[in-house]
Design goal:
The complex is a heterodimer of chains A (about 230) and B (about 240). With about 230 residues, chain A is mainly alpha-helical. Chain A is built from 9 helices and no strands. The chains are: A mainly alpha (about 230), B mainly alpha (about 240). Chain B: Belongs to the binding-protein-dependent transport system permease family. HisMQ subfamily.
């Protein structure tokens, strides 16, 4: 089959794109986790100001399409950053597609993660945290030694769902010109005039990512629920 | 910041809004009609009925909507038979139909799984009661299972509607002038991407919250009999760290 030969021929190209896609996904996941934890802690904090900042963040992000935010940060951010830069007499700053894509996706999923973490934190018994304080642990020690490991079990299902959606959202970075697997397939499909087979390949690549992720998530879920009795 | 170009081009935005609204509501309506029978098939124990539907939903839920749209628009649109077809049917050259097809199949897949989950969550007592009243399988489905499943599916379905609205923004990538498409035209004509995209983001935000409000109202109506008589909120719960 002609299409299949072309697919093999372009395989190194497509693999390069796949690496970019996976890199974008993991980099944005890291940002999303940090932002999500921060947003969750702010939502649960006693200060009204930080509660309302976090609520505004999660509400606005979830009300606007991801592509709009991405274009806003990529095209609009470029201009704004340099307007600010001109004021402080910085050199021209280039907001590249990778930075814009990772920041946007991380920023968006930070809001979703925030909701997940908030629920998970609430399901950790307060006694555990109090016990930590009673041992003389600092706030930070209680946070990373007790709260995070305890809430992970509750957060994992929601976190896994967010990860699956995040991975699919990375396809959008091709629109702002990042050479991910989608853009590479588009170029290959354009020059060989066989777009169908190349996009089909990308679809199956995403299915593989999804399937592997589901396996890993199930495994993690089992690990984190070791101490829990199941009916 | 200068928003005058956006006010001057409000008719372009309105036109875009109209395209988005048409695209999303048709996709949702057709998708829902497809999803109900598919969900019933998906609950079947026969692997020959259940299997193909599972494969369909797995494919469409496991791949990005963008790829699905590209597959139809670039992939299918370039096949010889489609080129020949579009010579006799002029409308097949329009990107709109490819986007609509992709959105419809995508939302059908997600909705199928939502309704399947709701059908499987039917309390068994309800079905037993229907059987005890002498209802046939089809009548049980029509009178008991589906009405109660639709109620239970509503919260998840309202999320799906919002996702569809937000997902539809990618239609602008294949030359359709939807809401985002209008913003992109304004952004490139006036070189004011910041203002143009902020305005369109605000527009989407308003539509999203209007929809959420609408669904809240529907839920209140449909779940009136399930509303707790007194709110037992655990607001007093101690705040951690």
């Amino acid at each position: 089959m002609e299409g299949f030969d072309k697919l093999i021929e372009y395989m190194p190209n497509l693999m390069e794109g796949a690496v970019v896609t996976v890199t974008v996904a993991f980099a944005s996941l890291a940002i999303a986790l940090v932002l999500g934890l921060g947003a969750a802690m702010m939502k649960l904090s006693k200060s009204r100001a930080s509660r309302s900042v976090a609520t505004t963040y999660t509400t606005v992000i979830r009300g606007v399409p991801d592509l709009v935010l991405m274009l806003l940060i990529f095209f609009g951010g470029q201009i704004q950053v340099n307007n600010i830069g001109a004021y402080f007499e910085w050199d021209y700053i280039d907001v590249d597609a990778f930075t814009a894509g990772v920041l946007t996706i991380g920023f968006i999923f930070g809001a979703y993660m925030g909701e997940t973490f908030r629920g998970a934190i609430l399901s950790v018994p307060v006694g555990l945290l109090e016990a930590g304080y009673a041992y003389g642990m600092s706030k930070w020690q209680v946070f990373y030694r007790i709260l995070v490991p305890q809430m992970m079990r509750h957060a994992l299902p929601g976190l896994g769902n967010n990860w699956l959606v995040l991975m699919k959202t990375t396809a959008l970075v091709s629109i702002i010109g990042l050479h991910d697997i989608v853009l590479k397939a588009g170029q290959a499909g354009g020059s060989t005039r066989l777009p169908f087979i190349f996009y089909l390949f990308v679809a199956f690549a995403f299915l593989v990512f999804t399937t592997v992720s589901i396996w890993l998530l199930n495994w993690l879920n089992r690990r984190y629920s070791v101490g829990v009795r199941r009916a | 910041m200068d928003f005058t170009p956006i006010f001057e081009n409000y008719s372009l935005y309105l036109e875009g809004f109209w395209t988005t609204a048409k695209l999303v509501s048709w996709a949702l309506a057709i998708g829902l009609c497809l999803a109900v029978p598919l969900a019933i098939m998906r609950t079947s124990r026969n692997p020959l009925i259940n299997g193909p539907v599972w494969a369909f939903t797995y494919f469409f839920r496991g791949t990005p909507l963008l790829i699905q749209m590209f597959l139809l628009y670039y992939g299918l649109g370039q096949q010889q038979f489609m080129i020949e077809l579009s010579q006799s049917y002029e409308f097949l050259k329009d990107a709109y139909w490819y986007a609509l097809a992709a959105f419809t199949l995508n939302t059908a897949a997600y909705t199928t799984e939502i309704i399947r989950g709701a059908i499987e969550g039917t309390p068994y007592g309800e079905i037993e009661a229907a059987r005890a009243c002498g209802m046939s399988k089809a009548m049980t489905l029509r009178r008991v299972t589906l009405p109660s499943a639709f109620r239970r599916a509503l919260p998840a379905y309202s999320n799906e509607v919002i996702f569809m609205l937000h997902g539809s923004a990618i239609a602008s990538v294949i030359t359709i002038v939807d809401l985002l498409g209008a913003a992109r035209i304004v952004a490139s004509r006036y070189y004011n991407p910041f203002e143009a995209f902020i305005a369109v983001g605000f527009f989407y935000f308003c539509i999203t919250f209007a929809l959420i409000g609408g669904f809240k109202w529907l839920e209140n109506r449909w779940f009136a009999h399930l509303r707790p008589r007194e709110q037992v909120a655990d607001k007093k719960r101690h705040q951690p760290a």
